[in-house]
Amino acid sequence: MTHVHGEKASASADDRSEPGDGADVTNRLRRRAVMLCILTTAVVASAEIGVGVAFGLISVTAEGLHTGADLLDSLIAYFLVIIASRPADRDHPYGHGKYDSLGAIVEGGFVFITGGWALLKSAGVLLGLVDADPRPEPVTVGIMLAAAVLYWGVSRYVIRLADQTRSPLVYAEAMHLRSHVWITLGLAAGLALSKAGLSAGWSAAHQVDAIVAVLLGAYLMRLGWRIVRPGFRQLMDTALPDEEIRRITEVLDRFREEFVEIHGVRTRGAGVDRHVDIHLMVEGDRTVRWAHDLSHRIEAELHEQMPGVRLLVHVEPAAGRAWEEYLARRRVGRVVVRDCAPLAAEADHHSDVRAHQG
Ligand SMILES: [Zn+2]
Ligand SMILES: [Zn+2]
Ligand SMILES: [Zn+2]
């Protein structure tokens, strides 16, 4: 018997798994987070492109273009968040959480490509293939420092929102803004160094701009990869992190007096949703109503610990070795999490069931 808990059962009055107001708050916070990122990047991109072009600074222009691209990314993210927060529907019965994962991949991929571009461009300058005439005036240093302060304040707030909503996309946006703090500080330092060098009559100070851009490019490629990875893991249905599986096991274990065994535990993440499915082995004479009630109590407890959890329960009667061990342990349930081949075990204990019936 397979029973879906969560969205499908939301019509029944006893269903305690509905996120309700909590989900509304989460969606509102996620939209606020992305809106803040859009406003911040819009302000900084205009300032950087203006300064970069006016003063002939390749590193600042590149960073301004990158920030302008971030603005587009954030706009895409805003719509992805709206899609990802829609409830499950007929075409997407598991919800739209993976649009969120996809958003992280698109955004991280773009940062990666931008990094590669900056690397090639500045290498061209250093090799003398491209002309450059940077004028690092004090006002350019001041503007980059102001941008760093703005990025720091906004990213701090958005990281807090990401913790509250546990959205990989909002987290990606926050970490992206945070990366700009170091980038803009690095650019400001490069500009100051370049200015000091030129004032001292050191002509090689012209190259500082391109050297800074090489470092910027390498950094962005690494950052992009780190944003892409968690989104990719979700798309590939990789199991939840060990820490979360440990917390899930802990909750299941609280019900050990009531079941015989829980096995076949499988987990995966999709945006803010965590899908968990388990095989709940109970004493064979229990009623369907009893097993259903236990399933809902387990789900309610899981939901208490981790709000995005969706639990799917497969109920089965105790038989064979599991039943004998249960009796030998004097009726205390056991949670088996690390069985790598739940389906193979299934064939084994389901043949036990048939043997009992035959
Ligand atoms: Zn139910
Ligand atoms: Zn960026
Ligand atoms: Zn089973």
CATH architectural grouping of the largest domain: Up-down Bundle
Number of domains: 2
Terminal Cα span:
19 Å
Structural class: alpha/beta
Radius of gyration from CA coordinates: 27 Å
What does the main sheet amount to? 5 strands, mixed
The general outline is elongated
Strand order of the largest sheet: 1-4-3-2-5
Report the order of strands and helices: EHHHHHHHEEHEHEH
How are the secondary structure elements laid out?
Elements: E1 2-4, H1 21-54, H2 58-84, H3 97-126, H4 138-165, H5 168-199, H6 208-235, H7 242-253, E2 261-270, E3 273-282, H8 288-305, E4 309-317, H9 320-328, E5 334-335, H10 342-357
Parallel strand pairs: 2-5, 3-4
Antiparallel strand pairs: 1-4, 2-3
Helix pairs in contact: 1-2, 1-4, 1-5, 2-3, 2-5, 3-5, 3-6, 4-5, 5-6, 7-8
In short:
This protein has 358 residues and is an alpha/beta fold.
Fold and architecture overview:
It is a single chain. By secondary structure, the chain is of the alpha/beta class. The chain folds into two domains: 12-235, Cation efflux protein transmembrane domain (Alpha-lytic protease prodomain-like); 242-357, 2-Layer Sandwich (Alpha-Beta Plaits), CATH 3.30.70. The chain contains ten helices and five strands. The protein has helices at 21-54, 58-84, 97-126, 138-165, 168-199, 208-235, 242-253, 288-305, 320-328, 342-357, and strands at residues 2-4, 261-270, 273-282, 309-317, 334-335. Helix 8 links the parallel strand 3 (273-282) and strand 4 (309-317). It is elongated, with a radius of gyration of 27 Å. Mean pLDDT is 81; it is low at 1-20.
